[in-house]
Each structure stands twice: as structure tokens, then as C-alpha cells.
Write a structure and sequence with these properties.
Layout (H helix, E strand, L loop, with lengths): L3 H6 L15 H25 L5 H22 L9
Helix pairs in contact: 2-3
């Protein structure tokens, strides 16, 4: 196995990168938002009933907001059809 240094010095000896996977980011964002929402409900219940820290619900709400931003980013940056490039 070649060393990292030899690969850095001779990049032509590296294997070609695999092609990127086609992933629907909407599904990924929606599943993540759903999981964060469930965790937020559990966090709020723990915060109210067990006198736990309020940072868990805030962290979960942040996850939901970041997921929503991811959905918006995905909508704006959808790839053009393959033939138009």
C-alpha cells in the first residue's frame, strides 16, 4: 500500500474517484427533521416533568430549523437536467 506522502507527491498514481451518488436531499432533510421533532417532544417532556436541562429542546429545535434551511437550499440549488450542461 502506498504511503500518504507518495500519493500526495504523485497524484497521477491515485485511483479515480467514484462517481457521486444520486441522493434525494428532500428525503434526508425530512427524515432528519422528523427525528429532531420527536427528540424535541421527548426533551420538552423531560424538561417539564423531570426538571432536566432546557438545552436539549433548544438543540432539537435548532436541528429542525437547520433541516428547514436544508430543504430551502435544496429547492434553490436543484441540479439542472443532465443534457443542459
Amino acid at each position: 500500500m502506498p504511503s500518504v506522502l507518495s500519493m500526495a507527491l504523485r497524484p497521477e498514481r491515485r485511483r479515480a474517484s467514484p462517481p457521486p451518488l444520486a441522493v434525494d436531499l428532500r428525503v434526508v432533510s425530512l427524515v432528519g427533521m422528523g427525528l429532531w421533532s420527536v427528540a424535541a417532544v421527548v426533551g420538552v417532556l423531560a424538561w417539564r416533568l423531570a426538571d432536566a436541562s432546557w438545552t436539549v429542546p433548544v438543540t432539537c429545535a435548532t436541528g429542525v430549523v437547520l433541516g428547514a434551511l436544508g430543504l430551502r437550499w435544496d429547492r434553490r440549488h436543484r441540479r439542472a437536467p443532465q443534457g443542459s450542461e
